[in-house]
């Protein structure tokens, strides 16, 4: 179907390459399940050769997530292709995505090989992948800075070797929309199979803020697949944002004449999930999913909106699954009503998870007058996505007064033991975190600290994310509470627990240069 644009989501691969993001297998599975509900055509689940953890995540997603094609990335070398196949082979529809550099600068300075050798590597990799699965994607990396003739030659070689999808990456986000559109049009006229028997894909980075514009220019010139990520995550300035691509194609469908399989009503949920798991907050004025994207504040605008929403709104917030936060549950609500409300929100929890979430809800309902959908989402995020808790927070006492050094006394439970400690700090949060670090004997460097109010009111819960460097690795912790210091202590402890209990198979993380 010529007018159908395939959405290839690479949040779990290119998105996960953003600095400081390190999702565990369970978190990746949760994102992949949401991507399937969102209706993406392809999930690039990871780069299996890079670590045992990445391999396990890709193979778990391949086994469990039904619907989309599941792809694994591989450099154009045998070991990568074999490992990628091992990881995706149980998918309903497995794909191997092989890539190799194509620009002179990458070939000469990074690969240090002859151009002929690189062509041979591309052909060998695609043939090897083809021996495993009929669905093989090939990417000539840094295509927009490559010599056109060589790029076309490499694509021809890959197609001859059996590639069914050719992806043209603007690896360094250098292209301009018109230029990129012309490149795509020229490739289509040079290689007639492109956009016909072979799917033509594009993968644009956002270094100049043009990733979405370039992707659209490509679509208007013959491409049929866009590679993108939720919230535009990805290397450096990120990739084309899925939510923007999907809503442009939907909102301007009459002019552009293209469709996607995206269930736009899932966009808001997918964005929130990815933001909460990665700790990458979405900027307030971000298109489509920013907090202000549907907020109208000036008098003239609100007046217009009250008279007719179309005066200032080109898409309805409902279209991306945004409903006003409503009061849905109160202090007296029982477990049954709680479960039913979560089911309405599409959360189906196991009994243990429900118990934990319900206990947290009751605690919150005692402190906070109104419990909204946003509060419930935060509870589910905190209580359900728990890591194995080596340490649990039992007690936290803060002493802080103007002119004196704040101190914190903390008690942590580890199995049957209760360990306690006291520490001073620059502020109450610093003191609490220092006390936890002393008790757990886990020296950590704070890389980032972020606090956000979940709802707008004064009794809002604080949602704290903390990124710690423990032994050279990043661990993201999250905690919520109506008390910011307690939320911070929980977030800090959550990161420490992740570090302490980090998956054994992650320990032997392969030390490879991802070369992307
Ligand atoms: O940006 C890039 O070139 C990539 C390729 C692996 C597709 O991420
Ligand atoms: Zn990329």
The CATH class of the largest domain is Alpha Beta
Mean pLDDT, as a whole number?
90
Sheet/helix structural class = alpha/beta
Tally of helical segments: 17
- Overall, the morphology is globular
CATH-assigned fold name of the largest domain: TIM Barrel
Low-confidence stretches: 503-516
Which value, in Å, is the CA radius of gyration? 25 Å
Which ligands occur here?
3-methyl-2-oxobutanoic acid, zinc ion
Q: What spatial order of strands do you see in the largest sheet?
A: 1-2-3-4-5-6-7-8
Describe this structure in words.
With about 525 residues, this protein is an alpha/beta fold. The protein folds into three domains: about 5-280, Aldolase class I (TIM Barrel), CATH 3.20.20; about 335-385, no CATH class; about 390-505, Double Stranded RNA Binding Domain (2-Layer Sandwich), CATH 3.30.160. The protein has helices at about 25-40, 50-65, 80-90, 105-110, 115-130, 150-160, 175-190, 210-220, 240-250, 255, 265-280, 300-305, 335-345, 350-365, 375-385, 430-440, 485-500, and strands at about 5-10, 40-45, 70-75, 95-100, 135-140, 165-170, 200-205, 225-230, 325-330, 370, 390-400, 405-415, 415-425, 445-455, 460-470, 475-480. Helix 14 crosses helix 15 (about 375-385). The two termini are about 30 Å apart. Zinc ion (ZN) binds near residues 171, 203 and 235. The site of 3-methyl-2-oxobutanoic acid has 10 residues, from strand 5 and strand 6.
């Amino acid at each position: 179907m010529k007018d159908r644009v395939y959405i290839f989501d690479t949040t779990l691969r290119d998105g996960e390459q953003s600095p400081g993001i390190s999702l565990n297998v369970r978190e990746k599975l949760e994102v992949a399940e949401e991507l399937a509900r969102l209706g993406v055509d392809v999930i690039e689940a990871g780069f299996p050769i890079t670590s045992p953890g990445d391999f396990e995540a890709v193979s778990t997603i391949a086994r469990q997530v039904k619907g989309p094609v599941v792809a694994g990335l591989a450099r154009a070398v045998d070991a990568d292709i074999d490992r990628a196949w091992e990881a995706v082979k149980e998918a309903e529809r497995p794909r191997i995505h092989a890539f190799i550099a194509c620009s002179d600068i990458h070939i000469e300075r990074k690969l240090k090989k002859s151009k002929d050798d690189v062509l041979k590597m591309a052909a060998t990799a695609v043939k090897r992948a083809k021996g495993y699965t009929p669905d093989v994607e090939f990417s000539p990396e840094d295509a927009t800075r490559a010599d056109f003739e060589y790029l076309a030659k490499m694509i021809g070689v890959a197609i001859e070797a059996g590639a069914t999808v050719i992806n043209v990456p603007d690896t360094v986000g250098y292209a301009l929309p018109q230029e990129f559109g012309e490149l795509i049009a020229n490739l289509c006229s040079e290689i007639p199979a492109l956009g016909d028997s072979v799917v033509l894909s594009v993968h644009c980075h956002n270094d100049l803020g043009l990733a979405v514009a370039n992707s659209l220019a490509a679509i208007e010139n013959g491409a049929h697949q866009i590679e993108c990520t939720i919230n535009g995550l990805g290397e450096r300035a990120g990739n084309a944002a899925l939510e923007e691509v999907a809503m442009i194609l939907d909102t301007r469908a009459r002019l552009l004449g293209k469709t996607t399989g995206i269930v736009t009503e899932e966009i808001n949920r997918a964005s929130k999930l990815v933001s909460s798991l990665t700790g990458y907050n979405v900027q307030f004025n971000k298109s489509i999913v920013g907090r202000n994207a549907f907020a109208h504040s000036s008098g003239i605008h609100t007046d217009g909106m009250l008279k007719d929403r179309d005066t200032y709104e080109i898409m309805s917030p409902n279209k991306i699954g945004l409903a006003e936060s409503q009061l849905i549950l109160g202090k007296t609500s029982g477990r049954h009503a709680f479960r039913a409300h979560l089911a309405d929100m599409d959360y189906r929890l196991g009994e243990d998870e429900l118990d934990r979430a319900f206990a947290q809800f009751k605690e919150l309902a005692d402190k906070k007058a109104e419990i909204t959908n946003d509060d419930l989402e935060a509870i589910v995020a905190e209580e359900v996505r728990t890591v194995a808790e080596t340490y649990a927070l039992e007690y936290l006492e803060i002493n802080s007064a103007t002119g004196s050094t704040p101190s914190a006394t903390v008690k942590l439970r580890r199995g049957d033991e209760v360990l306690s400690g006291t520490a001073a700090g620059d502020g109450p949060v610093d003191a609490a975190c220092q006390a936890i670090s002393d008790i757990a004997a886990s020296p950590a460097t704070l890389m980032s600290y972020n606090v956000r109010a979940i709802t707008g009111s004064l009794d809002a819960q604080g949602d704290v994310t903390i990124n710690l460097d423990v032994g050279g690795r990043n661990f993201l912790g999250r905690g919520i509470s109506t008390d910011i210091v307690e939320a911070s202590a929980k977030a800090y402890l959550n990161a420490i627990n992740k570090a302490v209990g980090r998956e054994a198979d992650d320990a032997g993380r392969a030390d490879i240069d991802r070369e992307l």
